[in-house]
Amino acid sequence: MSVDATLFKNLQAVTSKIHATDNIDEIILDLSKDICAVFEADRLTIYTVNEDRSSIISKVKTGLNTVKELKLPVGPEFSVAGYVAQHKKQVNIKDAYDDRELASFDPPVRFLKEVDKHSGYRTRQMLVAPILEPRDGDLLGVVQIINHRENRPFPKVFEEAATELCRTLGIAFRQRTVRKPAVRSKFEFLVVEGLMSTTQFDLATAAARQREIDLEEYLRSECRMKDKELGEALSRYYRVPYELFRADRSKPEELLKRLKREYWEKCPWLPLEDAGDTTIVLTADPHAASPREVASLLGKYKVEFRVCTRREFQDTKQLYFSKPGLDIKPDEVPPEEEKPPVSDEPSESDNEIRRIANKIIVDAKTT
C-alpha cells in the first residue's frame, strides 16, 4: 500500500469515529494521539472559537503539562493559530523560527515564541488549518499540528489530510450547536446532512412502505443514494463506524471455523478480522446481537462492531461462502427484518407517491 493510501486509510479510521459520536469534546480528546499518529506529529492543539468570535480557546492540547485553557486572540499579530483563524486559510511552515519564511506569507505570519520560552519546547514545523462551518464558512476552530517526528516539513499530501480532518470536525461542531430534530429513522441523517429534504425523505419512506420494500433499497434504486451515503447514515444512527464493502477482503478462516456454516448463513453478523483479544465484527444492525454473546461465541475477550448496508452485508456473506448451490437470500439478512412478498402490480396510490417522490428528488439533484 502506498504512503498516501496508508495516510488516508488511517485518517478515515479517525474521521469515522468522529462521525459516529454525539460527544465531540470527548471523542477528540480520546483521538488526539491517533491524530498525531496519522500526521506523524509530536503535538496537536485543537482550538474552538469563543462566543464573541474574538478569541480561540484550546480544547485539546497534547504535550503541554497544564490543564489550563490556552486563549489566543483571533488575528495575525500574536500567533500562527490566530493568523489562520483570521484569514481562514491553511499554513504549512517549515521552521517557525525562520523570520524570512514567515514574512513570505501574504500577509506575513508571526509565531508566538513566548510559549516555547515558558515550556522549554522547541517548535519547528507547523501545519495549521481552520475548522469552518460547512454551510456558510464561518470560523468554528483551528487545528494546529506541530513538529514532524522525523524533523522534516509536513508533505503536501498532509495538507489535504488536514483539510479533510477539519471538514469532519466542522460538521461535528455544527451538529453540536444546532438543535437536531428527533431521529425517527436510521436513514434520517441523510436529511441532517443535507442529502435530501424532509419532504423528499418522507415521500421516499411512504413510497417504500406502499411497495412493501426495504427503505434502504428504495433510497438506493429510486433516490440514487450511494452505499457510502447510506452507510454513513447508519453509522451516525447506530454510533458505530461504517465499513465499506471490499471485494478483495480476506476471509477470517479461523473465526469462521468456530461455528457451523448453517449458523453463518442466517447470522445477522460476520467476523471481519482478528485483532489480538478483540474481534472486528460486521453487521447491518448492531442492535441485532449482544457484544458479550458475540465475544463468547468467537472465544474472544472483546468485540468491536462495524456497520454496513444490508446489500454490503449480503455481498460480504456471499464473498465468504460463495459456492455452487449456495444462495443466501437478501430477506434472510437480518432475520428479524423479513418483508412480506411484493406484488408485481403496484397500486394506483403506489404509482402516484412514487411519481411525486421521484420528481422532487430528481429536480433537487439537477438544480
Outline the fold blueprint.
Blueprint: H1 3-19, H2 24-30, H3 32-38, E1 41-49, E2 55-61, E3 71-73, H4 80-87, E4 91-93, H5 99-103, H6 113-119, E5 126-132, E6 139-148, H7 156-177, H8 189-192, H9 198-211, H10 215-221, H11 227-238, H12 253-256, H13 261-266, E7 269-275, E8 278-283, H14 291-298, E9 302-307, H15 310-321, H16 348-366
Parallel strand pairs: 8-9
Antiparallel strand pairs: 1-2, 1-6, 2-3, 4-5, 5-6, 7-8
Helix pairs in contact: 1-7, 9-16
3D architecture notes:
- The C terminus is likely disordered.
- The chain folds into 2 domains: 175 residues, Beta-Lactamase (2-Layer Sandwich), CATH 3.30.450; 149 residues, no CATH class.
- It is built from 16 helices and 9 strands.
- The strands form 2 sheets. It has a 6-stranded antiparallel β-sheet, with helices on both faces.
- It has 367 residues and is α+β, with helices and mostly antiparallel strands.
- 32% of the residues are buried.
